[in-house]
Amino acid sequence: MLPYYLLVIVTFLFTIFDFVNSRNTRLLVYIPLCTLLVAFVGARAVGIDNDGIAYEDAFNLAGGMSWPDLFTGNYPETMERGYLLLNKVVDASGGDIHVVFMLMALITGLVNYTLFFRKSPMPFLSVLIYVGFFYFYRDFTQIRYAFAAGLGMWALFWFIERKYVAFFLFVFVGAFFHASVLVVLVPAFVSLFFRNPWFFLFLPIIGLIGGMFNPIMFLFQLGGLPPVLTNYVMVDEIGQGGYVISAIAQILLVALLIFRKELLEHYPKRLLDVFYIALSLSSFINLLFISFAIMQRLSLLLFGVTLFLLPYLCDLLERRRADQYIALSVRGVFMLYSLYYGLKMIGPGLMQPYMIWLMQ
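Above: the chain sequence. Below: its structure as tokens.
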């Protein structure tokens, strides 16, 4: 497991470059770090993560399907056609599942890491948060979801910038790889009609109360679940979610409300509103469906706004000379927690000892 631990520690150490003022110097260091993260996940052998073998089966399945069936979705699998079409193209080109892994790692890395560098005032901190909370779960196991989630974050920025064609295009493409990306439509459209920050501050409490009554089982008894989710309920394989996401989200919601006026001096109101709503909904979904962890994909996708909100807050507080040392301490604490959380994620429940596929 040593390579996993080293990867997280190296990412943590690279956050020192957030203190470098030159954007070009940052980029010269940022590119090798992101290349390492992409290569590490793309070159992995089949079987070291929970879903690798299943993705290999999907590759073989796609190779045996006809092009018309794939384009029209005429197949028994519930997997989205965009991913299966990618597998079909690779198979027709003479490639194998390892080529798919590398391609997915490349496009996911391109989507995520370019967004961090462009939109985060502290891109290395954003990468650390991503590695600590998302990387091993998404990029290693849920590769379709990882790519779709990255497109979802881009889509929210396009919406904020009123580039609606790009917004819908990114959501559309993402949905062809994983339907969970459709959840970004909720905070986007809600923000058009209702933006009361006090309501969204307390919305997670409603989710906490609702979660006590197990709404998934209630919907299941009413026959209101899609076939895929019904299957998860029947086999009871998914387990439960956790409260960490909601705890972090609630702290950020309070901080964003306290420093809202100052944040508005540096960031657009529309951006703060949309991200605040997305963060609140993330916590709400997590708490409401706490007994059904498959729904955490929706919650975690929206929780991705923390990759930008936390750097926004740190950057704001560190501009204030009177609170600079306190702000640096807060940043340091969260960096250490991200490091701890990333190291804690490493274990046989999620991945096996690392191996490059060429050495398999």
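Confidence is low (pLDDT under 50) at residues 228-239.
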